[in-house]
Amino acid sequence: MLSDRRPILFANARIVDPSRNLDIVGDLLIADGVIREAKKGIGAAGVPEGTDVIDCRNKVIAPGLVDMRAFIGEPGAGHRETLASASQAAAAGGVTTIICPPDTSPVIDDPATVDFVLRRARDTAIVHVHPMAALTKGLHGKEMTEIGLLKAAGAVAFTDGEKSITNAQVMRRALTYARDFDALIVHQTEDPDLIGDGVMNEGEFAARLGLLGIPSAAETVMLERDIRMVALTGGRYHAASVTCAESLEVLRRAKEAGLNVTASASINHLSLNENDIGPYRTFLKVSPPLRSERDRTALVAAVGKGLIDVVMSDHNPQDVETKRLPFAEAAPGAIGLETMLTAGLRLVHNGEIELITLLRAMSTRPAELLGLPGGSLRSGAPADVIVIDMDVPWIVDPDELKSKCGNTPFDEARMTGRVVRTIVSGRTVYELV
Amino acid sequence: MTIAPKSSFVLNHRHLLGIEGLSAAEISGLLDLGEEFVVLNRQIEKKTTSLRGRTQINMFFEVSTRTQASFELAGKRLGADVMNMSASSSSMRKGETLIDTAITLNAMHPDILVVRHHASGAVELLASKLDCSVINAGDGAHEHPTQALLDALTIRRNKGRIDGLLVAICGDILHSRVARSNIILLNQMGARVRVVAPTTLLPPGIERMGVEVARDMREGLNGADIVMMLRLQRERMNGSFVPSVSEYFHYWGLDEKKLAYAKPDALVMHPGPMNRGVEIDSIVADGAQSLIREQVEMGVAIRMAVLEALARNLPNA
Question: DSSP string spanning A127-163?
Answer without folding.
Answer: SEEEEPEESBGGG-SSSB--HHHHHHHT---EE-TT-
